[in-house]
């Protein structure tokens, strides 16, 4: 589905009859020859064309105007960045129509390449370590754009939504679209009066003039591009503060129909759940929490930073606090601490699923151990479930149910191996050690070994990297096998509700 757009290496052969040309080349200062294009991919093997090389973004300032009736978006994006190499040109990930690009105040040449690349050539090459101000003026209809055969922009009866994983930014702002390049954000959106614009962080101000209202949102902690969201429509917005002091902002589409009550009964518990999760994961890492439920037909939810995206279908069968727990757990595991590469997805999904198991225990509907025993027993050895390796599942299985459930099994196995004291110290210490940064599965193993004082390579290999069901001896050692008497584990009361969220990140393609 994705093709590598790696840089090409050109070699110049100088024949004896071309000495004059060679002398000209030698006359070029050595420094000039060091300027090369930034790679059109950041180097992630799962998605070779995603992200870009040659620069690092520190801040995005997005000033937008959106017309819900026609899905027309106009924007000026200002990116504050720094070059990481001697740079002759660089790429941005973007799909809409660009009218102007400026680099440090000077007009730059630009073109498109591949499925989603905007190629920018500054008037003058940029030495490594140069501070960049990149301004991109653009317009277009996001819902009319596709890349690789899909869209991450969702039209609603009263507006549009940008939310998807592992990509959604291309449809509404130019970016370096990979979790490795995190940045802070200011998102300012002008919409017709009576319509709201919802984004990440805190609402700084609103102002109205001549039938239009501007909403100014700010996320002051580093945020990855796929966790940045925009929702425009007619919402009922609720605000409050958790008992622990976290501001909470929620929004509900005014036409949710029969799902409205269940959505509110679930998402309005955000503050309570944030405080509860803080007991396991440490202080909440952001300036606000909350979620929004637009009137979309998608089936997934997404942990968009501070402002979780929920599909109405998550509440079609009634209140669903388990999915709220899952997405809020990601604020620590996935949002504050983000993956180094997409192969590290277990650190996001395994721990968010394990938070659901802890919530089940909290609600008296089955302990984490009982859920682990049941999941292990429910999948025979020849089940394809065991062929998915949560520690490196491959892009085709990145959001497979095994990444969630087998991933949570690995966490329970770790808990049993190192004991509760060390386990809960790891659970709380990890988001603090790597706060607002990136980390890998290997980093997590090293951290767990450091805290517990135990070698864990064999355990991690068995539960995360072997494409087979852990044998009974290994499973018994991890206390996730049926008892010696052969009695099958009883299905915990919470199991079906948790299993119903297995496709919670099953993005539409």
TrEMBL record:
One MF annotation (Gene Ontology) recorded for this entry: zinc ion binding
Gene Ontology terms: biological process: proteolysis
Signal peptide: 1-32
Pfam families per the UniProt record, alphabetical: Peptidase_M1, Peptidase_M1_N
Protein name, as recorded: Aminopeptidase N
Peptidase M1 membrane alanine aminopeptidase domain mapped to chain residues: 318-463
Cited PANTHER family: AMINOPEPTIDASE N, PROTEASE M1 ZINC METALLOPROTEASE
Keywords noted in UniProt: Hydrolase, Metal-binding, Metalloprotease, Protease, Signal, Zinc
Cofactor(s) of this protein: Zn(2+)
Aminopeptidase N-like N-terminal domain: residues covered: 58-227
UniProt-listed Enzyme Commission number(s): 3.4.11.2
Enzyme class per UniProt: hydrolase
Sequence similarity: Belongs to the peptidase M1 family.
Species per Swiss-Prot/TrEMBL record: Streptomyces lasalocidi (Streptomyces lasaliensis)
Catalytic function, reaction form: Release of an N-terminal amino acid, Xaa-|-Yaa- from a peptide, amide or arylamide. Xaa is preferably Ala, but may be most amino acids including Pro (slow action). When a terminal hydrophobic residue is followed by a prolyl residue, the two may be released as an intact Xaa-Pro dipeptide
Top-rank lineage group of the source organism: Bacteria
């Amino acid at each position: 589905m994705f093709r590598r757009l790696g840089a090409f290496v050109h070699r110049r052969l100088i024949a004896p009859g071309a000495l004059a040309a060679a002398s000209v080349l030698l006359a070029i200062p050595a420094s000039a020859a060091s300027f090369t294009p930034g790679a059109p991919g950041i180097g992630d093997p799962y998605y070779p064309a995603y992200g870009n090389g040659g620069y690092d973004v520190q801040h995005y300032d997005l000033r937008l105007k959106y017309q819900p009736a026609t899905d027309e978006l106009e924007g000026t994006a200002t990116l504050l960045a720094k070059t990481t190499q001697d740079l002759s040109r660089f790429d941005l990930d973007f799909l809409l129509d660009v009218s102007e690009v400026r680099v440090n105040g000077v007009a730059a040449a630009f073109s498109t390449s591949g499925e989603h690349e905007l190629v920018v050539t500054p008037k003058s090459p940029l030495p490594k370590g140069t501070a960049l101000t990149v301004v991109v003026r653009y317009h277009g209809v996001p819902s009319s754009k596709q890349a690789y055969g899909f869209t991450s922009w969702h039209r609603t009866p009263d507006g549009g939504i940008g939310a998807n994983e592992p990509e959604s930014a291309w449809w509404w702002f130019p970016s370096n679209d990979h979790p490795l390049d995190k940045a802070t954000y200011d998102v300012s959106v002008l919409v017709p009066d009576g319509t709201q614009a919802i984004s990440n962080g805190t609402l700084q101000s609103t102002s109205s003039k001549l039938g239009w209202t501007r909403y100014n949102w700010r996320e002051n902690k580093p945020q990855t591009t796929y966790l940045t969201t925009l929702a425009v429509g007619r919402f009922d917005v609720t605000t409050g503060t958790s008992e622990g002091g976290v501001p909470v902002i929620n929004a509900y589409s005014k036409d949710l129909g029969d799902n409205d009550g269940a959505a509110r009964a679930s998402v309005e518990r955000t503050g309570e759940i944030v405080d509860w999760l803080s007991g396991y994961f440490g202080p909440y890492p952001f300036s606000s929490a909350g979620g929004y439920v637009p009137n979309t037909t998608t089936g997934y939810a997404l942990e968009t930073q501070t402002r979780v995206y929920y599909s109405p279908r998550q509440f079609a069968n009634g209140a669903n606090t388990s999915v709220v727990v899952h997405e809020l757990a990601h604020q620590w595991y996935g949002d504050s601490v983000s993956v180094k590469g997409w192969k590290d997805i277990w650190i996001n999904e395994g721990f968010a699923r394990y938070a659901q198991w802890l919530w089940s225990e909290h609600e008296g509907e089955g302990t984490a151990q009982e859920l682990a025993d049941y999941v292990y027993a429910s999948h025979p050895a020849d089940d394809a479930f065991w062929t998915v390796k949560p520690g490196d599942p491959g892009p085709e299985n990145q959001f497979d149910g095994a990444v969630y459930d087998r991933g949570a099994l690995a966490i329970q196995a770790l808990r049993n191996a190192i004991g509760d004291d060390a386990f809960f110290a790891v659970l709380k210490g990890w988001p603090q050690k790597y706060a607002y940064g990136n980390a890998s599965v290997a980093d997590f193993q090293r951290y767990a070994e450091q805290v517990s004082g135990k070698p864990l390579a064999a355990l991690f290999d068995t539960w995360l990297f072997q494409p087979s069901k852990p044998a009974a001896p290994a499973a018994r050692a991890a206390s996730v096998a049926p008892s010696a008497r052969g009695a099958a584990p009883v299905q915990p009361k919470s199991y079906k509700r948790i299993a119903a969220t297995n496709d919670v990140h099953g993005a539409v393609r």
